[in-house]
Amino acid sequence: MDTATNVDATAVNTIRWLSAPATTIIVPVYQRQYRWDIGGCEQLLADIRAVADSEDQQTHFLGSILSTSSNDGSAGDLVLIDGQQRITTIMLLIAALHHTVKNVDPELASHLEAVLMRNAGEPGTKLRPHREWADVFESVVLDRRPADAELRDSRFDNNYAFFRSQIPAEEVPRIWSGLQRLEHVSITLGTNANAQQTFESLNSTGEPLRDHELIHNYVLMGLSHAEQSEIEDSFWLPIEHNTGDAIGAFWRHFMIMTTGREIDAADGRGVYDTFRHRFPRLDLHILRKQATEWREFSEVYSALLDPTHEPDEEIARQLGYVNTFGRGMYPLVMRAYYDYRLGMSARDALINTLENIQSLLLRRTAVGLKNGRLVARLCRASAHGPSVLASASARITPSDERVRVALKYGALPHPAYVLDRLSNHDRVADLDVEHILPVTPGDSWSGDGVRSWSEFSEDEQNSYRALSQTLGNLALLEPHLAMRAGNEPFAVKRDTIYSQSGVAATRELASVETWNTAAISERTARLTTEFLRIWARPASGEIDDDDLTPVLDAKRRRGWPRGWEREFDYVEYRGEHWEVHDVKYLFNRVFKRLWADSRDSVVAFSARRGGPIFDAQAWNGQWDALDDSHFLYMGWDSKYMLTAVQGVLEESGLASDVFVKYSYIGDAM
Questions:
Q1: How far is residue 312 CA from its own chain's centroid?
Q2: Given this model, what pLDDT does residue 67 score?
Q3: Cross-strand partners of 128
Q4: In this structure, what DSSP letter does residue 117 have?
């Protein structure tokens, strides 16, 4: 049998591989910067804890580490081609363990030091980073940063601080036990191997698994073949049948519905990670119960995708209306429709919810507000009952006054849908939207039969054009009549086209003498009254909220993206207006405020999460004193800080009273 001579791949124990006395790992200068954030560290730590608590023979596989021998170093030097992110993070974790126990458990500290440090007489760490960040890395790992050193933001400091905060001294042996069960495939290239081609083969081959595929694997992994077949046939295949190509969207909407938190469609493995967090353990008994619910919700989702599956004509009609606005509100609709199907809510309650959703989305679109990142807050409100949902909806539904002004001067959104409902018509798919005043009138067009368009002054023409897309200038028309209408003068349309329409609202135009800006404005005002009746705002004393975003729906961002210093215009904290423009200041101000107002909640949250408040400044970094014996660590990344703000506000019961107003920079980030 032929054997490869330029590639050596061996399964190894990661800690023994790192601890080999002669081994030094070199990160070449072409490697990208260290980019792991605290979220990745959380997952690594969770995996290590899980394997530490598992049966004796279980290990955790890290993947492959690709290296080649150094051309200008000693025989043990390895140049790291792929794997530096994982190895660097493990080194930061081991450094945190070492610094925690070095004064209390010298024997364990010596084992940890053997992983971190080169041979005696060779100063420095076993992992040798390239010059750009060597000093920062070694100052963290060797704990040589002076207490009065200049403040800095780096992933090394952030992740090291996370590990220090999460692992108390008494847990270090447990984590060390888990670390010793890590394994990887060590791939070492010979002198004639093409390192770049090997790297590309390892990292660029195949299509990445999508969220629903990862969920599928996660659900079935660990089951026997018979059990896998049972779950596949009884649950997963029906879910696939019910959702079709929308299965990925189904799982995203299901997780938003169940967690009450936004999950961005483009957020990597966000749906899968949320699913794993929501269902951390799925033995067969629990899996059957949960999968039954998943299948039932997939049946609901099928009716949302195709409302003709719903036998009740009015409910089917309302579901079709909701689809006018896309699928963004599906998480809220799923729950309402599911409760109705189970007999937990009345038919009228479901229809009222569907009507309110349409009012919310249409009114916001009319006044120029975005409809993203709304549904999670409404799902949270819905869990507390119809009155709370109505109040939450009212808060973000523009007032009659704002809508009236928007319709008077602005283009009508979703005109076919709006005109259909205003006309009480049920065949909108068979009708065209007619512009009574054409969008681009021809020179011979006339609204009164006296003056033609070419005789209008430029200002007059601009006044007409400004109203051409407004509600008052639009009507529904049968296709064969619309083909004849075109650029004909109003009198011709009135007498030979509008009078022949089967749509009553269009036929009324046959009695109008002239069509000018006054006639358009008068019709807009009249139809707006009916518009506000059909798409009513829920009765509530809540204010129209200036497009504020609940703090629980604020977007968690990785690292410190460009523009982070001006992400917010302001923050509304329990009715107070805070001039807070970035998440770091928000983090500091919220924790300081709650330390004064709700200390027990802050202490409970910090104790459970392992920070960010500590009773000593146990490592060098950015600290802020809350009092003489409690300190707030400020050296986290932005995602951790916002997550902590959201968590401590939930702990204190105040999250629903805190909002952020994104700046134009924040909207674009």
A1: 34
A2: 84
A3: 26
A4: B
**DSSP E strand boundaries for 242-379:** none
Cα 35 to Cα 64, 159, 162: the distances in Å are: 18, 10, 15
List, for residues 534-590, the tens digit of each pLDDT value. 999 987 666 666 678 899 999 998 888 899 999 999 999 988 999 999 999 999 999
- Cβ neighbour number for residue 272 with a 10 Å cutoff: 21
| Residue 1: per-residue pLDDT | 46
Supply the Cα-derived Rg of the chain in whole angstroms: 32
User: What pairing do the DSSP bridges indicate for beta strands 60-69 and 7-13?
Assistant: unpaired
Tell me the C-alpha to C-alpha distance, in Å, between residue 324 and each of 146, 208, 284, 316, 351.
61, 32, 40, 13, 16
d(CA 520, CA 436): 9
Q: 266-306, pLDDT tens digit by residue?
A: 766 889 999 988 998 888 999 999 999 999 999 999 999 99
Enter the pTM of the model. Answer: 0.79
* Listed residue (129, 135, 126) closest to 76, CA to CA: 126
Cα–Cα distance, 62 to 425 (Å, whole number): 61
Q: Which of 572, 578, 569, 546 minimizes the C-alpha distance to 666?
A: 569
Q: Are 211 and 40 in contact (CB under 8 A)?
A: no
Do residues 612 and 165 make contact, with C-beta atoms less than 8 angstroms apart? yes
Residue 473 phi, psi (nearest 5): -100, 10
Distances from the Cα of 537 to the Cαs of 71, 376, 387, in angstroms?
73, 20, 14
| Contact present, 192 and 69 (Cβ < 8 Å) | no
